[in-house]
Amino acid sequence: MTERKTSPEQGRRIRVLVAKPGLDGHDRGAKVVARALRDAGMEVIYTGLRQTPEMIAEAALQEDVDVVGLSILSGAHMTLIPRIVELLKANGQAHVKLFLGGIIPDEDAPRLKEMGVAGIYGPGTPTGTIIDDIRSACAQKP
Amino acid sequence: MTLAQSVLAGESLALARLLTQVENDSPEGRAALNELFPHTGRAHLIGVTGAPGTGKSSLVNRIALHFRKPPAGTPRRVAVLAVDPSSPFTGGAVLGDRVRMRDLAGDRGVFIRSMATRGSLGGLAHATAAMAQVFDAAGFDVVLIETVGAGQAEVDIARLAHTTLVVESPGLGDEIQAIKAGILEIADILVVNKADLPGVEHTERALKSMLDLAHPVEKVFLHHGQTMTIHAAGAEIGPLWVPPVQRTVSLDGSGVAELVEAIDLHAQHLRQSGEWGRRERARLEAELESLITGTLVAQFRLRVPEARYDEIVERLLRRELSPREAVEALLG
Ligand SMILES: Nc1nc2c(ncn2[C@@H]2O[C@H](COP(=O)(O)OP(=O)(O)OP(=O)(O)O)[C@@H](O)[C@H]2O)c(=O)[nH]1
Ligand SMILES: [Mg+2]
Fold first, then answer.
1. Nearest in space to B253 (alpha carbons), one of B212, B307, B195
2. Residues B19 and B102 in one domain
3. Are B202 and B175 in contact (CB under 8 A)?
4. The CATH number of the domain where B93 resides is what?
5. Taking CB atoms and an 8 Å limit, are A44 and B106 in contact across chains?
6. Is A86 strand, coil or helix?
7. Please, are residues B246 and B190 in contact by the beta-carbon 8 Å criterion?
């Protein structure tokens, strides 16, 4: 019996869905973030490219995640985000925190925050910042 | 309504939340499992294991599609439990199996859940079994459990499945020779996926010759007064099941109908031979025993002060006590 006590690490871990909605481009950025979150001890459900809002909400529900992280480069965020927020709510998952990365013009940020986006990150944001923000958002969780 | 009642009523959110509670082995999860237990025992648990990248997730996607749109009969409700390793350093994980299962999106008869291996091996097998039970109670007809590798964890998970698929793919070369005997022993069906790639024949031959070693069918026949060697797919002789080797291409779905047929044939074989009941009994007994062990150890830890335990370990180190005497000193 070398391991006498159960480790406090067991039990709840932060679960994050990382998805890339829309039809544009590549998922390199999303993959980098996914690995950084793993290295921070989180469980990341990675769903890959071309996810519709419906697919994202369904995966968030089935995986019972605390956080959804989206990478949007196409400029379609003002249509995708409201739809995803709406679907999460309809599924009873209003508590899920939304984080958004990609190319998001500054003038859109206030409205996105109003819709419930917890954090917005442009290219080159240190992953440490995202990790800290996710941790503190999840610590506030009831 | 309790969480368990909501799950029985078919609520997806309740199901997702209960899976989390059960995975975390929380008191709520344990209580719900007690409540759900009478509703379990109906689902067909299918393990899908094999080396990394052999196409397990793509195959699970195809198998699930086939169960959802069978050429004949009624569609079956399918749950998928996709297990990926946690990082041993940080405890985090990237669970990427859903990427290959996008065809299943939007179907309310399918529920996919990803799961990290987390801590101990025993804990994983326990959590997986419990989560499969939740799906079973929730009315899923089939639970597909994907695990990577060929280690003890996979063997343990295979023990809980009724039918275990071991997935290989061509081009692994000598690695195939390195498959542990253990993994062949747990295989009810061997799948050579990526059959569109060169080298299928070679892989198939290698598997069949290994099967001959693992399943000495001749002995059984001598006992019936004749000898023959069986290579037939899904051959069933009395209580004996000879694992068939099935070719599939998960990219386009070829061979999947035949694979599902073999899966169903295996389930039928288990029921007709009485093996289904025997496995069920063995599984429940094993679960009971591991729970007894766990509970007794927990009680022991509550009862014996840590200082006392450390003192006994010191005496053990000084050779003043043998390990057996140490146990007597602690428990006596
Ligand atoms: N040529 C060919 N490629 C395939 C086939 N099935 C899967 N693949 C490819 O093999 C790669 C791995 O597929 P996955 O389904 O993710 O394999 P896996 O065994 O689940 O992988 P891990 O979960 O990482 O161990 C992907 O690039 C698939 O597109 C097939 O039948 N033929
Ligand atoms: Mg996989």
1. B195
2. no
3. no
4. 3.40.50.300
5. no
6. helix
7. yes
B228 located within any domain: no
For A126-130, B21-25, B124-128, B326-330, which range has the lowest pLDDT when averaged over its residues? B124-128
Closest residue by CA, ligand 1 atom 7: B55
Task: Look up residue B74 and give its two tokens.
Answer: 């009624």
Region for A11 from its dihedrals, namely left if φ exceeds 0, alpha if ψ lies in -120 to 50, beta otherwise: left
Q: How far is it, in rounded angstroms, from Cα A107 to Cα B74?
A: 53
pTM score: 0.89
A86 is a domain residue = yes
Alpha helices in chain A (DSSP H): 28-39, 53-62, 77-90, 109-115, 127-139
**pLDDT digit string, tens, across residues B198-213:** 989 988 888 888 777 7
| Tokens 């061509």 -> residue | B170
Q: Could you tell me the residue range of the domain that residue A92 belongs to? A: 33-136
In a domain, B27, yes or no: yes
Residue B92 has its nearest CB partner, among A12, A40, A59, at A40
Please say if the pLDDT value at position B155 is more than 70. yes
For residue B233, pLDDT beyond 80: no
- What b-and-e string marks burial along B89-107, b requiring 16 or more CB atoms within 10 Å of the CB? eebbbbbbbbbbbbebbeb
Domain, as residue range, for B157: 40-221+238-273
CATH of the domain at A66: 3.40.50.280
pLDDT of residue A48: 86
Nearest-CA neighbor of B29 among B38, B21, B37? B21
Between these two residues, B290 and B116, which has the higher pLDDT value?
A: B116
pLDDT of residue B160: 85
The yes-or-no verdict on residue B162 having pLDDT over 90 is: yes
Please enumerate in sequence order all residues whose Cβ is within 8 A of that of B6, keeping only pairs 6 or more positions apart, or say none: B13, B14
* Residue A120, SS3 per DSSP: strand
Distance from CA of A11 to the nearest CA of B (A): 5
Chain A residue numbers with beta carbons less than 8 Å from the beta carbon of B13 are: 61, 91-93
- Which residues, 6 or more positions from A133, have their beta carbon under 8 angstroms from its beta carbon? A99, A118, A119
Q: What six digits make up the tokens of A108?
A: 């859109």
Q: How confident is the model at residue B239 (pLDDT cuts 50, 70, 90)?
A: low
